[in-house]
Amino acid sequence: MKHLDSQNFNQKLETKVKKVITEYNLIDDGDKVAVALSGGKDSVLTLQILDKLLKEGVFDFKLLAIAIDEGIGGYREEGIESARNNAYQLGVEYHEVSIETELGFSLDEASQFFQTACVPCGVFRRHLLNRTACQLGSDKLATGHNLDDEVQSFLMSFARADVRRFAKFGPKQDRIHPKMVPRIKPLWLVPEKEVGIWAIMNEVDVHLAECPYAHQSLRSRLKNYLNHLEENHPGTKMNLLKFFQKNLQLDKKKVKLAQCQICGEPSSASTCKACEMQELIKQKL
Ligand code: SF4
Question: Which residues form the pocket of ligand 1, taking CB atoms under 6 Å from any ligand atom?
Answer without folding.
Answer: 117-118, 121-122, 211, 213-214, 217
